Amino acid sequence: MKLAEKVAIVTGSTRGIGQAIAEELARQGAKVVISGRNGERAQQVAAAIQEAGGEAIAVQADVSHMADAQRLVKETLDRWGRIDILINNAGITRDNLLLRMSEEEWDTVLQVNLKGAFNCTKSVTRQMMKQRQGRIINITSVVGQMGNAGQANYAASKAGLIGFTKSVARELASRNITCNAVAPGYIQTDMTAALDDAVKDSLKQQIPLGRLGTPEDVARVVAFLCSDDAAYITGQVINVDGGMVMT
Ligand SMILES: NC(=O)c1ccc[n+]([C@@H]2O[C@H](COP(=O)([O-])OP(=O)(O)OC[C@H]3O[C@@H](n4cnc5c(N)ncnc54)[C@H](O)[C@@H]3O)[C@@H](O)[C@H]2O)c1
After folding, report:
1. Which residues of the chain register pLDDT less than 50?
2. What is the pLDDT of residue 73?
3. Contact of 218 with 23, CB cutoff 8 Å
4. pLDDT digits 0-9 by tens, 199-221
5. pTM of the full predicted structure?
6. C-alpha 92 to ligand 1 mean position (Å)
7. Is 217 near ligand 1, meaning CB less than 6 Å away?
């Protein structure tokens, strides 16, 4: 159990990649905080982890509000007294071509994907500095590296997360806190379920490994970055994309 006794907050863990990450961290022994806007769903995911023999609590929180991020941290500390791992996974899309994109579509995506990571990271930092130990992992996207027509807002938020990751890694390294980003390619979740088969087929052509990824493909890499095996890795972007982006 590589993560025994570690306490982990996973934002947006009520479904998809975040849920898979929370389940994997729990399987490896971590105590996990399931969090999302939907409190009822968070309770269900936490209950399923407990039934499988893991430790989990649910905290309803909208990461785009600083007050919610602070409450998320406070409730974690009230329950377990420490925070070792923060996974900034919560994310949304509001796709549109630039000419049609509304200010609201731009602002909402930046507010959740980028400001949400700022809110949660700022809120855990004091505790991790006190512990002189911590792992922060930001879920970015290949779209933040390559760009994508119709996703200027999403791509900007995910590219912003990469700069944020590198800056936080430099600021907190002296306190033994690492900060890395994981960049998934196309992963089978609700977010990509809306794509029609023709689009999925054309995407597969761009993926050397010839298949879409699964949430578990991403979760295992995140769990590795949380473990002691990854102690000397910080400020990096790890792609989990079947070879779509090779830098
Ligand atoms: N699915 C993919 O192909 C893919 C690829 C690259 C990156 N990603 C990124 O991975 C992350 C998870 O994606 P997914 O496919 O599982 O998406 P999803 O839509 O299935 O799940 C997103 C999760 O984030 C939560 N969330 C949304 N807004 C929130 C808010 N304001 N506060 C708290 N929680 C909020 C949702 O409740 C949900 O639990 C996102 O950051 C996404 O951008 C996904």
Report:
1. none
2. 98
3. no
4. 788 888 999 999 999 999 999 99
5. 0.98
6. 6
7. no
**Distance from Cα 174 to the centre of ligand 1, integer Å:** 31
Please give the helix or strand (H or E) that residue 23 lies within, else none.
helix 16-27
Dmax over CA atoms of the chain, in Å, equals: 51
Say what the pLDDT of residue 89 is: 98
Alpha-carbon span 141 to 192, nearest angstrom: 13
Identify whether 232 is a catalytic site residue.
no
> Does ligand 1 come within 6 angstroms of the Cβ of 114?
no
Could you give the CA distance from residue 93 to residue 154 in angstroms, rounded to a whole number? 6
Domain-embedded: residue 116? yes
Question: What backbone torsions phi and psi does residue 57 show, to the nearest 5 degrees?
Answer: -130, 165
Domain presence at residue 245: no
pLDDT at 191: 83
> What's the domain range around 58?
7-240
| Amino acid residing at 228 | D
What pLDDT is recorded for position 44?
Answer: 98
The DSSP bridge partners found for residue 239 are 183
* CATH classification at residue 25: 3.40.50.720
Rounded to the nearest angstrom, the distance between the alpha carbon of 19 and the centre of ligand 1 is 10
Tokens (6 digits) for 59:
């905290």
